[in-house]
Amino acid sequence: xxxxxxxxxxxxxxxxxxxxxxxxxxxxxxxxxxxxxxxxxxxxxxxxxxxxxxxxxxxxxxxxxxxxxxxxxxxxxxxxxxxxxxxxxxxxxxxxxxxxxxxxxxxxxxxxxxxxxxxxxxxxxxxxxxxxxxxxxxxxxxxxxxxxxxxxxxxxxxxxxxxxxxxxxxxxxxxxxxxxxxxxxxxxxxxxxxxxxxxxxxxxxxxxxxxxxxxxxxxxxxxxxxxxxxxxxxxxxxxxxxxxxxx
Length: 247
Description:
Elements: H1 2-21, H2 24-29, H3 31-43, H4 51-70, H5 72-81, H6 83-88, H7 94-120, H8 129-157, H9 162-177, H10 190-198, H11 200-212, H12 220-245
Helix pairs in contact: 1-7, 3-4, 4-7, 4-8, 4-11, 5-8, 7-8, 7-12, 8-9, 8-11, 8-12, 11-12
């Protein structure tokens, strides 16, 4: 276990170092979420009840989808460039390579989520500390699964990378639109609501909104947690298997 933790820390430090050297990259990535927060959120003010309690969790789920799902891009670049191949011949634990990379993405996601929440408070977002903490924990579990699945997709896409772009883009927008992240599905046609209920992201979005509203007894939290844990388990299993088989 000591070796595993050491290797995980090594990989995390290696992956996080470029972020520390170029912090402006994080602010650039925050451009779209901040634009949605200040412009789109203001347009919805009063249209969906307590709009900020409804909209902020949706923004965080959107960030969780766009960030970790795109995290495989860095691995794909290393696969194409050959640096990952050199890393694979080192004695580093293969599982630690996956976990270290995933933890780097989760650290970035957590920092960005906290920033969004802090900036939302002056706009009218009411902070329920317990619900927010549980909600962030759920998002991290969800993000771990998405990040691991993104790494699997990058491995399968090498060396051309075409498959990564096609699959990631074709999955991302349907997941967003059919989960009610930006617009409620309550008034949508019945067939669209049915598809939305099949989408696991929908249950995570509902759970996030209940948590951020302080409704800790809402049954949607259980469904959302189950969906996040299932995605994390599948992602880690497939990611670990892909790493162990080699790239």
